Amino acid sequence: MSPASLLPILLLAASARLASAATAQVFEPPSKGPLVQTANYTSFSNSTLNDKKVVKGHAFNRIIHIWLENTDFATTASTPIFESLAEQGLLLTNYNGVTHPSEPNYLAATGGDFWGLHDDFMYHVPANISCVVDLLEDKGISWATYQENMPADEFYGFISDAPNYAAPSSAPYPYYVRKHNPLTIYDAVSQDAQRVKRIRTFNDFANDVVNGTLPQWNFVTPNMVNDAHDTTIDFAASFLEYWLLPLLSDPRVNSEETLIVLTFDEAETYTIQNNVWAVALGGAVPLKLRGTTDSTFYTHYSSLSTIQANWGLKSLGRQDTNATVSNVFSFVAEKTDYKNVHVTNPPNLNLTAIFPGPFNSGAYVPFSAPNLKAQGAGHGGVLTRSGLNPKLTAGSLPKPVNMTALDATSPWQMSPETTSGKKIIPCANAACA
Ligand SMILES: *[C@@H]1O[C@H](CO)[C@@H](O)[C@H](O)[C@H]1NC(C)=O
Ligand SMILES: *[C@@H]1O[C@H](CO)[C@@H](O)[C@H](O)[C@H]1NC(C)=O
Ligand SMILES: *[C@@H]1O[C@H](CO)[C@@H](O)[C@H](O)[C@H]1NC(C)=O
Ligand SMILES: *[C@@H]1O[C@H](CO)[C@@H](O)[C@H](O)[C@H]1NC(C)=O
Ligand SMILES: *[C@@H]1O[C@H](CO)[C@@H](O)[C@H](O)[C@H]1NC(C)=O
Ligand SMILES: *[C@@H]1O[C@H](CO)[C@@H](O)[C@H](O)[C@H]1NC(C)=O
Ligand SMILES: *[C@@H]1O[C@H](CO)[C@@H](O)[C@H](O)[C@H]1NC(C)=O
């Protein structure tokens, strides 16, 4: 065929693509139910966790974080399923993301900082830097993350396409993204042969629940359509109707001691405060608080301070110990005698790209040690990992360097072409050495 006669075919293909892009996606259940494994998730579970021990907390024995994407508080608050969830739980009306875009928010909730990150590229945090997993394991508390459509356990890639289960005749869909899988970014987790087994798939979730081994700390990331990222809040509502509602009445997931925190990584609109809808659900929410609201100023750092207070954990010595941005969920603060601060003039949490850090090539500074004198909500001291140089404090850091101006990237950035494999492939740029 001559190039000229190909043209109409190409145009046709292009317009078909446009037409399908313009068609709103409609929710289809990936399986018969949240506890039934499905081929729509690429690989079946090969393992169950073996966590039988329960470490008692002051206000809950299990916490399940569920994160949806990019929606302003007001949009969520006026969507029916969310309205009814608010009636069953405690609505946190002043809960906030800490910056934009997505990835730094996921890092913040699990590490107490986002280290200057202001994009969604492929980074890794060195193994001497602590995260929530260190705090939990220090007290023998079991944990896992469950990533919908992650193609296999220990997957380290940037993105993963799978057959489009809602529209099988369409091209494979990029359901899984690494930027929403926080613990894989920490070398202390993903490069540890035992810990990495706890970064799990939704088929593993079904298997773990059915086998009675759902851990005490959980982080759940729905796929790119179910979390509203590529779709709408109504689409995410349909997903919750399919996935969360049945689990709320299943004692293997939600018992008297379970706290479920359903929230969003960040607001959609950058020009307003980063206020996201968040609800505390589950058997651990006191009856008298259900259907009420709490207007205390919380951020993603509160998810760290709240578990620290609940289980008497050590802290990370980062923003998880900054009283202004880490109020403990009030009903947990009450049970643990933690005094929250009344924040009358909250910081703007919608700012991005202005913070120096090891992940900001425009204002690069090395990773520093945490503040070892910080007082966390668990009163347990600051946890440090081996290989940490405690003398490299925030105050001792050199002035930020603009690596972008030197045509370099952060040494902690990796090639996004690393779409498979388990090991770090360092940044190829010579200046990163
Ligand atoms: C995959 O999802 C589609 C859409 O809901 C459904 O029709 C199909 O039965 C699912 N396949 C399996 C194996 O569950
Ligand atoms: C889960 O439990 C079932 C029933 O006890 C068992 O047959 C299965 O092997 C367990 N799964 C794994 C992966 O151990
Ligand atoms: C189970 O093992 C098979 C074979 O090694 C692998 O292809 C599959 O991805 C594994 N499943 C998970 C959830 O890792
Ligand atoms: C952040 O939100 C505040 C309102 O809280 C607004 O005044 C400000 O312009 C926003 N900043 C940016 C960079 O959009
Ligand atoms: C604590 O948080 C506030 C608000 O974001 C910020 O202004 C302050 O610098 C932080 N303090 C430390 C020690 O990081
Ligand atoms: C952490 O480890 C990295 C990699 O070995 C090293 O470059 C850095 O200086 C260390 N940082 C601290 C605070 O110890
Ligand atoms: C760093 O340098 C780049 C390229 O010269 C420039 O675009 C950027 O604004 C600089 N960043 C800062 C924080 O000055």
From TrEMBL:
Signal peptide (from-to): 1-21
Top-level division of the source organism's lineage: Eukaryota
Gene Ontology terms: biological process: phospholipid catabolic process
UniProt key word Magnesium: no
Molecular-function annotations in GO: hydrolase activity, acting on ester bonds
UniProt-listed InterPro entries: Alkaline_phosphatase_core_sf, Phosphoesterase
Keyword Cytoplasm in record: no
Alphabetically ordered keywords of this record: Hydrolase, Signal
Name of the protein described by the UniProt record: Phosphoesterase family-domain-containing protein
Record organism: Mycena metata
Lineage, broadest ranks: Eukaryota, Fungi, Dikarya, Basidiomycota, Agaricomycotina
